[in-house]
Every structure is written in structure tokens, then in C-alpha cells.
Design brief:
Layout lengths: L1 H27 L9 E5 L5 E4 L6 E4 L5 E4 L1 H7 L5 E4 L3
Antiparallel strand pairs: 1-4, 1-5, 2-3
Length: 90
């Protein structure tokens, strides 16, 4: 009888692990956002390419004064860059 109890316990543990894994996968998917796009202006003298931390999108500023729209999910990391500032767009 001990053998069946251990199999049942092992099966229950596997079921729990499978359920928790599917929950993690659902939360890991990128959710669309209803937040507005933010515009950033480049203040540096060279070129600058930054990969968005939220979306993985590469943003390439080609020259001083170049302005790009940045996805809201990426914008928080851009705020930490010294050579970028938020602007009202074009």
C-alpha cells in the first residue's frame, strides 16, 4: 500500500508543478498597453541606439536633436539616460 501512496503523491506534485508553470507562462507574455507613446529627444553629439527593455525594440537616434516615439513600456529606462529628454513630439 505504501507504493500507491507515493505514486499518488508524486502525481500530485507533478500536477502542481505543471499548473504553476502555466501560470508563469501567462504572466510572462507581453501585454498590450493603453498608455500613450512618449517622445524623446537626443541631446548627444554622436549616434545612440538603445534596445527597449519592455518590448525589445531597438531605437536609433541618428543626430543631436533627433526625436523618436518610444513605447510606454520602454520609456522608463529612457528617462534614466542623460543624453535623452522627454519632449512633446514633433
Amino acid at each position: 500500500m505504501n507504493c500507491c501512496g507515493k505514486k499518488r503523491q508524486a502525481w500530485l506534485m507533478e500536477e502542481k508543478a505543471a499548473k504553476s508553470q502555466s501560470v508563469v507562462e501567462v504572466h510572462a507574455q507581453k501585454a498590450p498597453t493603453d498608455q500613450p507613446t512618449r517622445w524623446f529627444e537626443y541631446l548627444g553629439n554622436n549616434q545612440l541606439t538603445i534596445k527597449g527593455i519592455g518590448t525589445g525594440t531597438p531605437y536609433h537616434f541618428k543626430f543631436k536633436g533627433d526625436k523618436l516615439p518610444v513605447d510606454y513600456r520602454d520609456s522608463f529606462a529612457f528617462m534614466a539616460e542623460r543624453e535623452l529628454r522627454i519632449t512633446n513630439g514633433e
